[in-house]
Write a structure and sequence with these properties.
The chain is mostly helical and 235 residues long. The protein has 11 helices and 2 strands, in the order H-H-H-H-H-H-H-H-H-H-H-E-E. The longest helix has 16 residues, at 78-93.
């Protein structure tokens, strides 16, 4: 199956900009941005981020407030704080062998950066990779990571896979199966997540939102500073 997968990928791979570099900082930025955010939204933001902070040292020297403002619109703003802290760690100590020592870096991100930046033969397993492996019954190695991402994102879809276009279909025991809808994430509209986002956006604009619960939650995550009843971005 591996040879079939890689042959398909060579003809069908998505032209994603972070695939053109082995810079661990640029790859880390892409992986953090891609968490729970669509690829099409990430591409322009990734370019803008690297234009503003082209190196890990440049990001480390930025203020947390500037980082949070630059992150606006990507959602899950704690990711920005963790990425900034990770950059500060790397700027001070270099890239650790165990990348999970960096703030916000879990096993998946460690595997992705380890593979794409440092050439380690490790397979980063996200939902797409897991789905393909479970359906085919095949355990792929690290050289198949990008191909599995693309196959899972475009062909081996969650509910109705496009088996007629899949290069692995002839050997896949799940060919032709349909699946129940996966549980969807809770609605953003009207949620506490939305209240947090609105409050943070207001603080970034120099306003003082009245949503005290949201501000307390943001302060707990290091996204705002509360002092004498006023909220500001961290400096």
């Amino acid at each position: 199956m591996k040879d079939l997968l890689l042959a398909w990928y060579s003809q069908n791979k998505r032209p994603l900009p972070w695939r053109e570099t082995t810079d661990p900082y640029a790859i880390l930025v892409s992986e953090v941005m891609l968490q729970q955010t669509q690829v099409d939204r990430v591409i322009p933001r990734w370019h803008a981020w690297l234009e503003r902070w082209p190196t890990v040292e440049a990001l480390a020297a930025a203020s947390p407030g500037d980082v949070i403002v630059q992150w606006q619109g990507l959602g899950y703003n704690r990711r920005a704080v963790s990425l900034h802290r990770a950059a500060q760690h790397v700027a001070a100590h270099g890239w650790p062998d165990d990348l999970t020592e960096l703030p916000g870096v879990g096993p998946y991100t460690e595997a992705a950066v380890g593979n794409f930046a440092f050439g380690r033969d490790v397979l980063p397993i996200d939902t797409n990779v897991r789905r393909v492996q479970e359906r085919t019954g095949e355990l792929f190695d690290g050289s198949c990571a990008q191909a599995l991402f693309d196959l899972g994102a475009t062909i081996c879809l969650a509910r109705i896979p496009r088996c007629g276009e899949c290069p692995l279909a002839a050997e896949c025991p799940s060919r032709g199966r349909r699946y129940e809808p996966l549980r969807k994430q809770s609605k953003f509209e009207g949620s506490f997540r939305q209240r947090r986002a609105l409050a943070l956006r207001a603080v970034a604009a120099g306003e003082q939102p009245s949503d005290g619960d949201a501000l307390v939650s943001l302060a707990r995550d290091g996204l705002v500073v509360l002092q004498d009843g006023a909220a500001t971005l961290p400096s």
